[in-house]
Design goal:
It is built from 13 helices and no strands. The chain is mostly helical. It has one domain. The longest helix has 29 residues. About 2% of the residues have low confidence.
Length: 298
């Protein structure tokens, strides 16, 4: 039992590190001459191939019922929106800043669910929403660095897409759909959408050269497939609530990787604001006994 808990914890930490590498690896890919359309199409294409190979080899049931199709459409389109808006944010602000802003989505979900009457109005939840908004304000307002407002807007839209994605995943009819199957549909849809984005933008359809291929494969294997495998293993061993709590370290990892790997600027207000955002995410998870679904893909 102790070994299972340790392995589960290490698996979630590994998944969090994989997710935290997304901004740094993406910016390193930009440095090789890749553009966001090419990165996203290649990343999801390769990840979809690997994921569906796994699904077919393991003979996982992947057919959806008529009732499951509509919420699944919401999930896959919302995730495609997450990926696109996040990379549009990357084009204008640092990866660390974008990730912190993106992580205000748990507070947004709580606020929406309380307004819809599906979440009890509790003081701790209200405090979490307030802390998240204050943290966001501190992160965005930084006198020590110039921030493009368009990048902040794209990061906020990414968080909004996460709200639809999270609510869609929580739909009762999707509970019986295997996590890997959901991830498979997410990746295929994202690959198709970004295929058309690449085609209409006249961007190169595929990576060119060894350096570009390396970073695309890293994003596909490490940030998509491996992260999902580790997260699902961890959820099975320590439960989704504990996994969600550990996963709150993702923006911290993104900032640390960004600072050491690509020289991201981290200001005092960003540190304070990021701390408040992480604290808000912790508050949204700790008091809630309801289990959260694992996050299929980043």
């Amino acid at each position: 039992m102790k070994n299972a808990k340790l392995i589960g914890t290490l698996a979630i930490i590994g998944a969090t590190l994989c997710y935290g590498l997304v901004p740094s690896l993406s910016f390193m890919a930009f440095d090789t001459g890749l553009v966001s359309e090419t990165i996203l199409f290649n990343k999801f294409l390769y990840a979809a191939i690997i994921m569906w190979a796994y699904i077919l080899i393991k003979k996982l049931p992947f057919k959806l019922t008529r009732e499951q199709i509509k919420p699944m459409i919401v999930v896959v389109l919302a995730y495609a929106g997450i990926a696109i808006t996040l990379y549009l944010a990357f084009e204008n602000i640092s990866g660390s800043l974008a990730t912190i802003i993106e992580f205000t989505f748990p507070a947004m979900v709580i606020a929406v669910e309380m307004i819809r009457g599906r979440e009890p109005v509790r003081a701790v939840k209200i405090i979490a929403v307030i802390l998240s908004m204050i943290g966001l304000a501190l992160v965005v307002w930084s006198p020590d660095m110039e921030i493009k407002i368009i990048g902040v807007i794209w990061a906020l839209l990414c968080a909004v897409c996460y709200v639809f994605y999270t609510i869609g995943l929580a739909h009762p009819v999707l509970k019986d759909v295997n996590t890997f199957v959901t991830a498979g549909y997410v990746m295929v849809t994202s690959a198709v959408i970004n295929f058309f984005r690449t085609m209409f933008s006249d961007a190169p359809m595929f990576s060119q050269g060894g350096d570009q291929l390396f970073f695309v494969l890293m994003l596909a294997i490490v940030n998509a497939f491996l992260a999902i495998m580790l997260f699902c293993l961890g959820v099975k061993l320590i439960g989704p609530t504990n996994a969600s709590i550990i996963n709150t370290a993702e923006p911290v990892c993104a900032c640390v990787f960004g600072y050491f790997l690509i020289g991201d600027i981290i200001t005092k207000t960003m540190v304070i604001g990021g701390f408040l955002v992480v604290l808000a995410v912790l508050l949204t998870n700790l008091p809630d006994k309801a289990e959260k679904l694992p996050d299929p893909a980043k």
